[in-house]
Write a structure and sequence with these properties.
Blueprint lengths: L7 H4 L18 E4 L2 E8 L1 E2 L4 E2 L4 H18 L7 E8 L5 H8 L9 E6 L8 E8 L8
Parallel strand pairs: 5-6
Antiparallel strand pairs: 1-2, 2-7, 3-4, 5-7
Length: 141
């Protein structure tokens, strides 16, 4: 047991994660600390097929969000509980089309967000990590 009174199993909401497709890096899929839940980067991996979901942005965003929803559900949360998202895109040209797809999953008031352009593992076009909260008293500015 940790100082918070929760076992590591209760604090880490492990699921079949995209990183298990190859080798399992040393991190948890999700960790709860107080009223916040931190979800590690999720990408467009089809967990059943254990492969990249598809070559196009729309398919990869769909599976990325599905994987985020699955991780959040382990903590009894949904995308509406997300207060911050960090989006990693493999190319700047994906920014505008990504924003259109993002609006299908997040509504106003939107979570705070940062976008980073970088090379991603497995040829992914997008990866997203989020912070969600159980605190019902969220304030948006």
């Amino acid at each position: 047991m940790s100082d918070s009174g929760m076992s590591m199993e209760e604090r880490n909401f492990n699921q079949p994660a995209p990183d298990r497709v190859l080798n399992r890096p040393p991190f948890s899929t999700a960790v709860r600390s107080g009223s916040n839940v931190y979800i590690s980067g999720q990408g467009g991996i089809d967990l059943e097929a254990k492969a990249v979901a598809g070559p196009d942005l729309k398919t990869q965003v769909e599976f990325t969000m599905r994987n985020l929803e699955r991780a959040l559900a382990k903590a009894e949360l949904t995308l509406s509980d997300v207060v911050q998202a960090t989006v990693y895109l493999s190319d700047r040209s994906l920014y505008a089309p990504f924003n259109e797809l993002y609006r299908d999953y997040f509504r106003q008031p939107y979570p705070a967000r940062t976008v980073v352009y970088c090379e991603l593992n497995y040829g992914l076009l997008v990866e997203i990590d989020v912070i969600a909260t159980t605190d019902a008293d969220k304030q948006y500015y």
